[in-house]
Amino acid sequence: NAGVTQTPKFQVLKTGQSMTLQCAQDMNHEYMSWYRQDPGMGLRLIHYSVGAGITDQGEVPNGYNVSRSTTEDFPLRLLSAAPSQTSVYFCASISPGANVLTFGAGSRLTVL
Amino acid sequence: AQRVTQPEKLLSVFKGAPVELKCNYSYSGSPELFWYVQYSRQRLQLLLRHISRESIKGFTADLNKGETSFHLKKPFAQEEDSAMYYCALHRGSTLGRLYFGRGTQLTVWP
After folding, report:
1. What is the DSSP string of chain B?
2. How many CB pairs under 8 A join A and B?
3. Residues B22-61: pLDDT tens digits?
4. Min distance A14 CA to chain B CA atoms (Å)
5. Which residues pair with A101 in a beta bridge?
6. Which residues are within 8 A (CB) of A15 and not within 5 positions of it... i.e. 6 or more apart?
7. Is B49 close to A33, i.e. CB distance below 8 A?
8. Which residues of B touch A103 (CB under 8 A)?
């Protein structure tokens, strides 16, 4: 049981480049979410999904796209990276019947 | 609007001293509150949740609806408690939509 797996662990982009952060979970959790962690700001919800084919915006969705074609995968896309998107990104899923998040190891993104 | 407030960005205590990490929230309904912890080079993980009413690693937290607080306490801090602590609030009916505070970095000195 791998839990929540995020790739890549580290990434450096130039302004304007696009990329996708991958997130996969093997626990058959319906709910998945993406957070960004910034110093002094805590964790802020970017997008979330309550099941395959269903996504919704969180607190800071601008500049990010998501899709949920399968229960297992929830990729986060940056279409045109900006320096303000330099952050650590966490994917998380929730087990049924609880509001307890299981987090991935994080992806550190630097946009130059 | 800040839904979860952790007023201390940094907190330092000596080993064996009591420690209290403060958390206040804004929500008029019935909240569900959590403390998450991130140890150095480890994943964020749940420490405790108020509905469990349990003590984890010697930590306890009591929900005070009158003061809208959920402070995390431990009577005798240990060096291994050094970590970043986040208070989180779930409100409403949307499963999993948690609001996190800005975090408190706890350092326990030997």
Report:
1. --SEE---SEEEEETTS-EEE--EE--SS--EEEEEEE-TTS--EEEEETTT---BTTBEE--BTTTTB--EEESS--GGG-EEEEEEEE-SSSTT-EEE---EEEEEE-
2. 54
3. 999 998 778 889 999 999 989 999 999 888 778 889 999 9
4. 26
5. A94
6. A81, A82, A83, A111, A112
7. no
8. 43-45
Chain B residue with the nearest C-alpha to that of A100: B46
Whether the pLDDT of residue B1 is over 60: the answer is no
- A99 three-class SS: coil
Question: What is the Rg, in whole angstroms, of the alpha carbon atoms belonging to chain B?
Answer: 13
Handedness of CA A109, B2, B4, B10 (dihedral sign): positive
List of chain A residues whose C-beta atoms are within 8 Å of the C-beta of residue B4: 42
